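Changelog entry: the GDSL esterase/lipase record was regenerated in this release. Current contents:
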Amino acid sequence: MNSLMKLLASLLLFIFSFLIFGDIDVAAESSSQNHPFSGRNKLFVFGDSYVDIGNTNTTDKGVWDYPYGITYPGKPSGRFSDGHISTDFLAQLLRIKLPVTYAKKDDVDKTRLQYGMSFAYGGTGVFKTYADYPNMTAQIDLFEQLLGTVIYSQSDLSSSVALVSVAGNDYITFIEANRDSPAKIIFGIRPLIEKVVNQTEVNLRRIHNLGVKKIAIPSLTPLQYIPYFSNSSDLLHNVTQYIVKDLVSYHNDLLHKSVAKLNKETSHSAFTIIDYYNAFLTVINNKGEIPGILPFKTPLIECYRNGTLCDDPRSAFFWDGIHLTQEGWKSVYKVLRHNITAALTNYV
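Regenerated structure tokens:
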């Protein structure tokens, strides 16, 4: 009977893999009894809207309104997209069941808690942003409060992975606050980047010290191409043409140095960078030469803009001015899957 149940569970996982990833080909790996991630069964998520699967208040407008969630699950689910986002695809790629949101932790069957938890809130950053939700430090505080309780013991963390996605909102908030003063942006952005990355290093070290063995940190995306910046026609647009590309480059350079430092401290590769930057560019620039990834004809035009929805979200890379469609995230993870697998397979 146990063998039959395991076979049924594997079949259901295979079907789920196909529905989410299509021809991403991860389903082929599920047939192996020695899957490299078979020992990792918890995912803890910290960050912003790129990874938030439903923590934001359901009374807030926008993400909990139509047409968000139109592709999956057919209604708003608190995801900043028409469907699945980064967290969904990473969990599936690692064969980890989707974690419960912190906001729903008291409302679900307690068995759901064994798969981990998402503390991510849309709009948040490393520091205080325009969003009235917990920033990175506060999210880790929430996580720490659950350790050593009936929810999570220290041994529970030995097989866990953390996904940490922050920083973009810190920069967007700063630029918005100074949009009428380009000089403040030009001379203030680099000191802010250094402050953000330094605090990120502190936060990553803290998560590891709390017991999480593997921590994945996405690099900053090419912000100069997100519709929020690229399609702007005011002074903000002119400023970003000069500084946003440099902003992203400087942030990612410092982030790589911080992660290298952290890995040296721990004497193993506990920390890994998910290369959002090059993955986004690869998909944006794809003209059909990448097997398994269909090109987006107008990748920099968002599907949902000013209350108007495009004909087919699957044809769009960006969902709105900042976030990707489900198809966009799917394509990004097709590009990333091999590197993620290699980086997160090794046990520590």
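The CA atoms of residues 44 and 253 lie 25 Å apart.
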